[in-house]
Amino acid sequence: MALYTSGQMVRIVARTGVTFVPRRTIASTPTRYADSNVDNSSGGWLSGLKNMFGGASRAKVTQRPSAPKKDEGSLGASSIFGSDFQPTKAQMPSKPQHAAGESSERDQGRIQRGLLPDPNSQLRWERKMAVREIRKRGRLPKQVQIKRTERESLSKSHWFKTSVKKLGPLARQIAGKNIDEAILQMRFSKKKAAQDVLGHLEHAKNVAIVRSGMGLEAGKEAKPITVILKNGERKKISNPSDIYIQEAWVNRGPYGREMDHRARGQINMMRPPTTGLSVLLKEEKTRIREWEDREAKAQRARRDQLWTQLPDRKIPTQNQYYSW
């Protein structure tokens, strides 16, 4: 083992006579202490060891200069936030400099041609809309009047992991029933898919109340009325704002992909089906209106079938030939 004045230790192998220098000493020591301000050769081997293990003092890095300050823009004159924003004089936009002979105002003709390329079609469209408003002496169509006076809510569920054959009977079971009665039946049903239907019915009821405002007139007193449904069943309605299920149908969803592990390392690919449920919720006002429409139609049909005696008339002319 030899120690040089530069502070590096060199091991000498006695058998082969080859000088062995550690790799770390060659690779890192000169580079590591190249930027040191201390002269290692002048201090001898003691200063070399001190610099190797203790390290020499390095020059401090000066602080970098800060970035230049950014210039902030200002809002336009037509901005809706112009009243809340008070720009400074430096941020105020300068007036554009127009060349000689140019007008500072925009050409309204060009702007109008760009915004309204065909004014005649615009006039025809406005006339068409005005005629549509006063059609039938201002009376609204029946479908529009129903949409304005009655509420409804359509809710579609996510894909249930079941088949159409299993979910279809549950949809037919709840169709036409009150929403609370349908929830009660699904709660005590033995079907596995009934729990998914129960969760969807509760969600559909909440959506109908919050978004459509259905079922909010429960406190008002109303005279009970008995209606006849399409299937001939009589139903007594005490609150016209109660929510019931007008329609319920199922939707076939995409098929999944599962593996069925069999004997001897065989695997069969299965395609489990998925099905969705859609319910259309309405209020009892709709059921009362439909019953009244059916009764009025049946009354008109009975009135048309009545036979009335025609008044006697004198025969003005007679002919020897038949008139037919």
From TrEMBL:
InterPro entries: Ribosomal_uL22 (IPR001063), Ribosomal_uL22_bac/org-type (IPR047867), Ribosomal_uL22_sf (IPR036394). GO terms for biological process: translation. GO terms for cellular component: large ribosomal subunit. SUPFAM superfamilies: Ribosomal protein L22 (SSF54843). Gene3D superfamilies: Ribosomal protein L22/L17. Residues 76-91 have a biased composition (Polar residues). Pfam families: Ribosomal_L22. One of its GO terms (molecular function) is structural constituent of ribosome. Keywords: Ribonucleoprotein, Ribosomal protein. Residues 56-123 are annotated as: Disordered. Belongs to the universal ribosomal protein uL22 family. This is Ribosomal protein L22.
